[in-house]
Design brief:
about 25% helix; two-stranded antiparallel ribbon; about 120 residues; alpha+beta; 3 helices
Length: about 120
């Protein structure tokens, strides 16, 4: 997470306090860490669910809206993601945060999920 731009340290601390409040609502969905290094806050979130979690994506969007200079990537694989107009069940989707906006993109690195990340059951290891 990058700084808030020209805003002062108090605004940054207020943002981090609000972020910590939002994180409390995500506890069942993911493991979350916030740390400060060299004047920048770094936010890590990870989980091992096999479905998209709306609150996680909503938090990512909230960060983009409230800390507009933040940037990052959110990778999600949902093996039941076939109801949004396209079948994404065998691929990761990437949410990219830059300059206050979040875009959903195709993943070129870990998709297709099978056989790139996991072999089909019949092939096994």
């Amino acid at each position: 997470m990058d700084h808030l731009g020209d805003e002062d340290e108090a605004a940054l601390e207020k943002f981090v306090a609000e972020l910590r409040q939002h994180i409390k609502t995500l506890h069942p969905y993911a493991a979350i860490h916030i740390q400060s290094r060299n004047g920048l806050y770094i936010f890590h979130i990870f989980g091992f669910h096999n479905h998209r979690q709306g609150p996680v994506i909503e938090l990512f969007q909230w960060i983009a809206e409230n800390a507009r200079n933040s940037y990052g990537l959110l990778y999600i694989h949902d093996d039941e993601d076939s109801k949004r107009g396209q079948d994404y069940t065998n691929e990761f989707r990437v949410w990219r945060m830059t300059f206050g906006k979040v875009e959903e993109l195709a993943d070129p690195f870990l998709s297709p999920y099978m056989p790139t990340v996991e072999l089909p059951y019949e092939q096994g290891l």
